[in-house]
Amino acid sequence: MPDCIFCKIIAGEIPCNKVYEDEHVVAFHDIQPQAPVHVLFVPKKHMVSLQAMEAGDEVLLGHMMKVVAQQAQALGVSQGYRLVSNCGASAGQSVDLLHFHLLAGRNLQWPPG
Ligand code: DGP
């Protein structure tokens, strides 16, 4: 297993401001928030990005999308948010464990940088 900061968060070795956890996914506030609400959704199964999905992972990813929608409601931002997964270094991925950014709480520009 590579030296993965999110694996350490999942293992409880590094603290985080957690908003949700179940047996498949954990969600916590980003340490460098880019919006008033910036929460990361991370699968407990280690996969580098969407490009590393294997047969059967559709169930996990579908579950994660359901959790995102539920947490958007719980966080009070269900009326407007952006969900982003940076896939690869050129897209801005800096942590090599698949994760989705939920961004909300301000007007978000399009296209992103
Ligand atoms: P990305 O650049 O798409 O791979 O997103 C990685 C995000 O992870 C970035 O927005 C900053 C966040 N991050 C990095 N290290 C930590 C950490 O130790 N704790 C928390 N909560 N977030 C972190």
Written account of the structure:
It is a single chain. The chain is of the alpha+beta class. Helices cover 21% and strands 21% of the residues. It is built from two helices and five strands, in the order αβββαββ. The protein has helices at 5-10, 57-74; strands at residues 18-21, 25-29, 37-43, 82-84, 100-104. A five-stranded antiparallel sheet has the order 1-2-3-5-4, covered by helices on one side. 2'-deoxyguanosine-5'-monophosphate binds next to β2.
The H/E string reads HEEEHEE
Strand content: 15-25%
What overall form do the CA principal axes indicate? globular
Query: Average pLDDT across residues?
Result: 97
How much helical structure, as a percent, in the residues? 10-25%
Number of strands: 5
| Number of contiguous helices | 2
**Helix- and strand-based class?**
alpha+beta
Physical arrangement of strands within the biggest beta sheet: 1-2-3-5-4
Largest sheet at a glance?
Answer: 5 strands, antiparallel
Q: Which kinds of small molecule does this entry bind, naming each only once? A: 2'-deoxyguanosine-5'-monophosphate
Low-confidence stretches: none
User: What is the CA–CA distance across the termini?
Assistant: 32 Å
Rg:
14 Å
